[in-house]
Predict the 3D structure of the following.
Amino acid sequence: MSDIRWMLYGATGFTGPLIAEEAVRRGHRPILAGRNAEKLRRMARGSGLKYVAFDLEDVNTIAEHIADVDVVFHAAGPFTYTSDPMIRACLATHTHYLDITGELPVFENTFTYDEAARSNRIALISGCGFDVVPSDCLDAYVARHVTAASLLEIGVAGFGNVSAGTLKSSLEMVANGANTIRQDGKLQDAPFTTKRIPMPGGDVTALSAPWGDVATAYRTTGIRNIRAYMATPGPMATLAKISGPLIRPLLRNAAIRQGVGLLASRFANGPSHEEREQGNVFLWARASNDAGETKQAWMATPEPYRFTAEIAISAVEQVMAQQPIGALTPAQAFGEDFAFSVEGVERVDAL
């Protein structure tokens, strides 16, 4: 049994119980935490774990609850609202912080605390789930093979059903910037574009997207120009390109965003157990330089929620074993092979 003292905040959402189940399977006894005491009580009764209920409104209150743990694994989104107070509490209590955000502004905010994290000798690592561990590791791999790489492109294909929490976080991403790229080292909004990217089974149409790598890959690789794409059927990609400029202003309205989020809670149920066990996702990354040299590679992973549950526990174990310090990406903290901690992950250099 693991002797790591850690807390899983957001334990009663969709992803939280998957992480808790994997933790117990691997001999961990995390403290379950979140806002809803009754849900936590029922979950704790079934798992035999301890629990504590508190919200994230006051940093001092958070700090009181996390003072006796070594690691907080934060799984309660949308992280645009929940991440910063938890980070500040972790800094106050010298507690390692890990989360599973995919929200680009959250990554950028986490990196602003690098000096504070180093002063307090803790790690702040956002994106310790499917967002962004496999892509971050793949980015590091291809970048290492190209001298003075100036452009990094990333693509993802094979997504299935998503949870309400994921959809709500996606709404926040769209509201904050429908499509974001990194150009000459700086983030900037850009029109939606499409690209044909090579994937197992043939080329697919992919739509540009504000994937977390636009933030993390810059830190991991130093490459100053980054584009991210998500495989999307051709007609849907065309519709997104046309409607994107119209949707973004609407979603900037908090009331509209909240209404769409409520609908998400009713209809976005996430993948079934069978889908999590059988699904897989493919990633592609290509680094290139001004001389025309390129390196591309592909990675296959288990279904994203299953991958997240498994890699989350590996992140907790590795942050305690290695004791990294600073605001880091997963690949910076744990190396480019960290994704292989999950059984079934494969990387290839050619199709």
Summary: Residues 174 and 247 are 8 Å apart (CA to CA).
